[in-house]
Amino acid sequence: MASSVHLVFFAMALAVAVTPFLWFQKDTNANHFSGHIPVDQRLYHDHQRTDHKQRPEKEIQPSSDVTPSGNSWAFSTIQAYPDLGLDHLGDEAIEFNSNNIQAMIRLKLEFIIQARLTRARKQRRKMEDDFVFHGHSFEGKPRPLFVTLSVPGGGLGNYMFMVATLVGVARKNNRIPILMYPDHRANYFEGLALEVTAETNLYPNRNLTDDDLMFEAACSWYLNDTANLSTTKFANRTVALRGYLQSFMYFDEFREEIRTMFTFKEHTLNAAKDAILQGIQGLDNTSTALHNQTKVPTLVGIHVRRGDILHDPHKAHGQTPATEQYLLRTALRYQRKYAPVLFIVISNDIAYCREVFVDDHFVFISGTPLEVDMAIMTLMDQMIMSVGTYSFWGAYLNGQATDISYFRDWPRPGSDLARITNKSEYFLPSWHGRI
Q: Residue 330 above 80 pLDDT?
């Protein structure tokens, strides 16, 4: 009888810990810490006062058709993952001690990962079924209309914007998205299966010319002609998109498909989970977030982009890193709002981050590949972005976070980059610009 009661307590705790973290929900104080910049009550009030156009925050409730509630859901979740080694928790009184907190975080992450992979594999099969050049001949038949990319390039975040826009424009115009060049980064994703074909299949008996290209007006501006091909010369022609195409407006109406498409491979998600858990385990004997708590800590991701943007030509163009004031002030806001909190820090300059964040609530991820780092961001409960497309996608693919912040003073005001960036068409309106 006692064992059953204890398991009920654990199930209730687990339901509270995991229920908010389902992947595709419909979008609808704490401890002081210090760093180079003193973060005190005055700074926190300054933050409140200088927040730019603060949007009213709303609680997003899990939809009843996808989120079972109550103890039955927790019990069924435990039964679905018998290999997680949590049986012993039913034999003792449930306490929010370090071991049990880590066990519940592990179970939560496993649940999110498995749910995502199930959807991604289903979508991949569907995309592969839609391939048109494998075993098909259009001889004597009308050819379908395609949307393709001229030359996908740049870093991972740039590549993802181009592919997402390709799919979004194709869906909106009832076209087939297709690629003319393979790219190794497609192998990062479980749900991404775009057909790759030769240029001659899309443009028979001739070469691709500038007349076949749809150019963008600026890298981070939405262009209506690109999104609505029926009003352009490409109304009845295959089109090749060219540019950075960095506006969420090209693809956000297909958000569920885009997120599922960019679900990382199972080994990448597992590596992300292991990095998170190993980092938390390293705090076991020191962090107050793991001791004497009444609930599982909120995992808040912090991405800090530095490196190349500190130097010319990127700096001269308008790139600028998020300031220490923004990072500390925003972290304090989340710590006050979501206590207890564990911050998971991802950066290309971890040494800098260790100097800025000196409290025992911070886990520093190092030595992991870039795709694993982005996968970690997608698993967080809430997210603090810095700058750049990599940071954008770490936040956009995070389907459970309801409070996402970005550095408002990027790009540098008055710079060339600022002139070709429309922030209202780059950052989602539900995200919060802060300084």
A: yes
| pLDDT 10s digits, 88-146 | 444 444 567 788 888 999 999 999 999 999 999 999 999 998 888 865 656 666 778 99
Cα-Cα-Cα-Cα torsion 57, 58, 62, 64, nearest 10 degrees, comes to: -170
Helix, coil or strand: residue 249: helix
**Burial class, 115, CB count within 10 angstroms (exposed 0-12 / middle 13-18 / buried 19+):** middle
Whether residue 340 is preceded by a cis peptide bond, meaning omega within 30 degrees of 0, is yes
Closest CA to 120 of 188, 201, 39, 208: 188
With contact defined as beta carbons under 8 Å apart, do 384 and 357 qualify? no
Which residue in the block uniquely carries the two structure tokens 């839609």? 130
3-state secondary structure of 215: strand
Rounded to whole angstroms, how far apart are CA atoms 196 and 133? 9
User: Of the candidates 356, 358, 375, which has an alpha carbon nearest to the alpha carbon of residue 275?
Assistant: 375
Q: Could you tell me the CA-to-CA distances from 163 to 3, 148, 169, 250 in Å, in that order? A: 52, 9, 10, 11
Whole-Å CA distances, 85 to 60, 66, 277: 32, 26, 15
Q: Please give the distance of CA 50 from its chain centroid, rounded to a whole number.
A: 26
Question: How deeply is 49 buried, as exposed, middle or buried, from its count of CB atoms within 10 A (0-12, 13-18, 19+)?
Answer: exposed
Q: In the block, which residue shows the tokens 């109406």? A: 253
Q: Which of 123, 104, 128, 118 is nearest to 21 (CA)?
A: 104
Of residues 73 and 153, more confidently modeled = 153
Cβ pair 59, 352 in contact under 8 A: no
Q: How far apart are CA 30 and CA 186, in angstroms?
A: 42
Q: Distance between CA 362 and CA 33 in Å, rounded? A: 10
Q: Give the torsion through C-alpha atoms of 374, 379, 384, 389, to 10 deg.
A: 30
Contact residues for 360 (Cβ-Cβ < 8 A; gap 6+): 283, 286, 287, 288, 289
When comparing pLDDT for 58 and 109, which is higher?
109
Q: Which two tokens stand for residue 229?
A: 């091909």
